Amino acid sequence: MKKKQSFSRISRAKVNLSLHVVGKRSDGYHCLDSLVAFPRVGDEISMEPSRNIDLKVVGRLADELKSRENLVLSAINLLNHDGKGASIILNKDLPISAGLGGGSSNAALVLRMLTKLWQQPLPSMNSLISLGSDVPACLDWHLKRMQGRGEILEKVVEPPKPPTIWIVLANNREKVSTGIIFNAVQTFNNEGLGILPIFKTAEIFLNYLRDQRNDLEAPALKLFPQIMTLLNTIRNTSGCKISRMSGSGATCFGLFLKESDAQKASLDLAKSFPKAWIRVAQLFS
Predict the structure, then answer these.
(1) Out of 65, 93, 201, 251, which residue is the most buried by the measure of CB atoms under 10 Å away?
(2) What is the pLDDT of residues 227-276, one digit of tens each?
């Protein structure tokens, strides 16, 4: 009997290293200018051919995800699956409503895997953006600039190694509604990222990021002031070069040049926030 072809991939977190709100569209969506990275932290998606389409969600957050609309199913419906099937297992590790684009990343990866399995092209940009603003950016894991609603993408050359930049991600089990945060934004025509420099070194990259911001951070902190405690704790860990909130929150991150500093920061955070979700990874890998 022929063995079934199987795939297994990590559906990586999307981290907004900077996020500038630069306008508001007539359809109500905001215009963004954001630098996004995809460290090797995320959910695991396994897939193999099957007669029918079957999605099974497992892991710590499985029950919670079942009660919400799953973008993976919506993504599958964008493809021609007449007479085709796949057995999909989503092992959920990323916190939900956390500013990490978990659902969008899941949808994007399933589309990549299914189009390979079924030998189909990817859906159009309009179809992808209809799933979620982050879906197009999540189709690959290059450092990139994301503009417009999320449909204008520009690959950015990562700073060379060494040194490696390390990221510590932390979420203190806070769920934040993206819509609530965007509705609280009061200024729309903010300055964008401008012309990106050539990131010849990690230091140049970090110096550039220090001058950027997340325009969703202030309204998120006003509505959820407890996020500030986590953000300040990360900022005060030894070796932290930059700390910021990702997306609409409530996940925060710190960037480090030494793995030892990043690992120690994660241990210190675990002591201060014993129930928190905390992960350490290379920023670019």
Answers:
(1) 251
(2) 999 999 999 999 999 999 999 999 999 999 999 999 999 999 999 999 99
Residue 244 lies in a domain: yes
Measured CA distances, 32 to 25, 26, 205, 216 (Å):
10, 14, 20, 11
Q: Which domain holds residue 110?
A: 7-148
What are the DSSP calls for 187-217, one per residue?
Answer: --------SPPP--SHHHHHHHHHT--BTTH
CA angle 151, 156, 162 (to 5 degrees): 150
Query: Are 142 and 161 part of one and the same domain?
Result: no
* Residue 2 belongs to some domain of the structure: no
* Contacts for 256 with CB less than 8 Å, ≥ 6 apart: 165, 166, 167, 168, 239, 240, 241, 262, 265
Of 33, 43, 134, 215, which residue is the catalytic one?
Answer: 134
Structure tokens at 213: 């911001």
Sign of the alpha-carbon dihedral angle for 241, 171, 261, 198: negative
Based on the residue annotation, tell me whether 134 is a catalytic residue of this protein: yes
Read off the pLDDT band of 5 (50, 70, 90).
confident
Structural domain contains residue 1:
no
Which residues, 6 or more positions from 2, have their beta carbon under 8 angstroms from its beta carbon? Answer: none
8 A C-beta contact, residue 70 and residue 57? yes
Backbone angles phi, psi at 222, to 5 degrees: -70, -40
Annotated catalytic residue 211: no
Q: How many angstroms separate the CA atoms of 182 and 227, rounded?
A: 17
Q: How many domains does the chain have?
A: 2
Boundary (domain end) residue, out of 148, 171, 198: 148
